[in-house]
Design brief:
CATH class of chain B: Alpha Beta
Order of helices and strands of chain A: EEEEEEEEEEEE
Strand content of chain B: 25-35%
Helix content of chain B: 25-40%
Largest sheet of chain A: 6 strands, antiparallel
CATH architecture of chain B: 3-Layer(aba) Sandwich
CATH superfamily of chain B: Glutaredoxin
Shape of chain B: globular
Low-confidence stretches of chain B: 14-20
Mean pLDDT of chain B: 89
Number of strands of chain A: 12
CATH superfamily of chain A: PCu(A)C copper chaperone
Oligomer: heterodimer
Structural class of chain B: alpha+beta
Strand order of the largest sheet of chain B: 1-10-9-4-5-6-2-3
Number of helices of chain A: 0
Largest interface: A-B, 42 and 43 residues
């Protein structure tokens, strides 16, 4: 049976700090998504030249009544594929760290997005240009595996 | 008498216009950094760009997340400007050991930015160090990965920055490079005038 989940999404990327002006703005969007099981929507990845890095982004919604976990990712598009997270450290510097697994609470959406969680593609095995696609397999603790098509775009 | 009034009005207008212009955060006209672009051509910053507004992002090509957004944002500023005029768009690496001109050319091509008015710049490590210090871009090794062939990959924590520099090599704005909506940068660029 399909479920409907209403999401209140805060977009921190719209929180802007301009050193000279101190302007700040924040936007919120609310929308509904429906589905069943584990749903992966809006997948895309950045361009990369062969041997370089890229990152994939998407939304994962767990429509089940039980929590799940993303426990692995794989693809032949890169020599190593890992779950990573960008974070803001000391002195306003942006850093990155590996995250072994991601909790997927029941009836909630987890965002893989710019400056946060992303799938790290280490050393692309081929040029990834706008319009290309590649397959990415995600492994869940309770829901098995899903393979999705990820388009490259700028 | 009439001449004096007109002269006074002109001086007053000049003062008012000066007061309306954006105050500079820094002035780079006293520095000179010899860099190399993705085509292997020597470029001197800021001398070679004097007379052109500059949008400058700071990146390294092993960075998959933040730097790709900085690069894409610089590209979008150009693509979404009605009249970019003589504005130049620079991406400068802070990882010169790995980001050679050839690597930068390939990276630029992946973003469809290996073309005018974009320049991807590297240089010798000492020059890049001096440049980064002057523009307050900080870097620090944060994460390493050993590949199965024995190669050791390293990643950097770094400042997230795009600069807007005016025609006289003065720093006018300093943005969060991956986070700032490009329309804000475009509006600020338009304030600089032709």
């Amino acid at each position: 049976m399909k479920k409907l989940i209403t999401l209140l999404i805060t977009l921190p990327s719209f929180l802007i700090t301009l050193n000279s002006c101190g302007e700040a703005d924040e936007q919120q969007q609310e929308w509904s998504v429906s589905g069943e099981g584990i749903s992966i929507e809006g997948a895309w990845a950045r361009p990369a030249s062969e041997g370089r890095m890229s990152a994939a982004y998407f939304l994962i919604t767990n429509f089940e009544d039980e929590d799940d976990r993303l426990i692995g990712v794989r693809s032949d598009v890169a020599r190593m594929v890992e779950i990573h997270e960008s974070y803001e450290g000391e002195n306003d510097m942006m850093g990155m760290r590996e995250v072994p697994e991601i909790e997927l609470p029941a009836n909630e959406t987890v965002r893989f997005e710019q400056g946060g969680l992303h799938i790290m593609l280490i050393q692309a095995t081929r040029q990834l240009a706008e319009g290309d696609t590649f397959e990415l397999t995600l492994e869940f603790e309770n829901s098995g595996e899903q393979t999705i098509e990820v388009p490259i775009r700028n | 008498m009439r001449f004096t009034i007109i002269t006074s009005l002109i001086i007053l207008a000049a003062i008012l216009l000066s007061a309306c212009s954006e105050p500079a955060l820094d002035d780079y006209s006293d520095v000179s950094y010899e860099l190399i672009d993705q085509n292997g051509e020597t470029v001197t910053f800021p001398d070679d760009f004097e007379g052109s507004p500059l949008v400058v992002g700071f990146i390294y090509t092993h960075c998959p997340d933040i730097c790709s957004f900085i690069t894409a944002n610089v590209g979008k500023v150009y693509n979404e400007m009605d009249n970019p005029g003589d504005t130049k768009f620079l991406l400068v690496t802070f990882d010169p050991d790995r980001d050679t001109p050839e690597v930068l050319k390939s990276y630029a091509a992946a973003f469809e930015m290996d073309r005018e008015p974009f320049r991807f710049l590297t240089g010798d490590p000492d020059t890049i160090d001096d440049f980064m210090r002057r523009v307050s871009v900080r870097t620090q090794e944060s994460y390493t990965r050993d590949m199965d062939d024995g190669e050791r990959l390293y990643f950097l924590s770094h400042s997230d920055k795009i600069l807007l520099i005016d025609q006289n090599s003065r720093l006018i704005f300093d943005y969060g490079g991956s986070m700032t909506p490009v329309n804000i940068i475009i509006e600020d660029l338009e304030k600089l005038g032709p």
